[in-house]
Design brief:
The chain has about 200 residues and is α/β, with parallel strands linked by helices. It has helices spanning about 20-35, 45-55, 65-80, 90-100, 105-115, 140-155, 170-180; strands spanning about 10-15, 40-45, 85, 120-125, 160-165. It is built from seven helices and five strands, in the order E-H-E-H-H-E-H-H-E-H-E-H. The protein has a five-stranded parallel β-sheet with strand order 2-3-1-4-5, sandwiched between helices. Helix 6 (about 140-155) links the parallel strand 4 and strand 5 (about 160-165).
């Protein structure tokens, strides 16, 4: 059923590169819809489109605009759905800006926007690293990114859950974290304990 008069439930997926964020966002949106009867959509990563268009990685002075555009896309999508799955948020831009440029100025804005999410899913480092052009810096950055994300989430007391496992285990891990939010008052007609859809999840 739809959620009349209620803001969209926002699920944010963050994590180091090559940890299955995009595949998980797509799978959650596609498979939560028939399981819940809710309008579920997902928003992709603006940085990916930006790099493809510019054929380079952004400079330090371009980070804030990228973070704001990511959040604008999230807000636009949230106005037309019941459940919104975000394939990254401004928090990731803030983390990389701090790592690459020693610039912490984006953190307050990113944390403020992250508080608007009902739950943050942090993807674990248990998937193999795969090259992806301008989008990937290398496997050596995954651990530092993961550590920074955990510190930020903990320091600002943002609700988060770790998503781990291979294949269907990863999707089930995310589903278990999300299910309690979907079963709160106002989200009726759910069947989250039914067998999952036969659509394969391939991170």
């Amino acid at each position: 059923m739809n959620r009349p008069g209620r803001a969209a439930l926002r699920l944010a997926i963050v994590g180091a590169e090559s940890t299955g964020k995009t595949a998980l966002a797509r799978a959650l949106a596609e498979r939560l819809a028939p399981l819940t009867g809710l309008r579920c959509v997902w928003v992709g990563e603006w940085l990916r489109e930006w790099c493809a268009r510019e054929q380079r990685t952004p400079r330090a002075d371009e980070q804030l605009a990228i973070a704001r555009r990511q959040q604008a896309l999230i807000d636009e999508a949230a106005a037309h759905c019941d459940v919104l799955v975000c394939d990254t948020t401004a928090l990731m831009t803030a983390v990389y800006s701090a790592m690459l440029f020693d610039d912490l100025s984006l953190v307050p804005y990113a944390v403020q926007e992250q508080r608007r999410c009902d739950l943050t899913l942090l993807t674990a480092l248990d998937l193999p690293w795969v090259a992806d052009g301008l989008q990937r810096d290398g496997p050596q950055v995954r651990q530092p990114v993961d550590e920074r994300l955990r510190r930020l989430l903990a320091a600002h007391r943002l609700p988060w859950s770790l998503v781990a496992g291979q294949g269907e285990q990863r999707f089930d891990s995310a589903l278990q974290a999300v299910a309690p939010l979907l079963q709160r008052p106002g989200a009726t007609g759910l069947a989250l304990h039914c067998p999952t859809s036969p659509l394969p999840f391939t991170p």
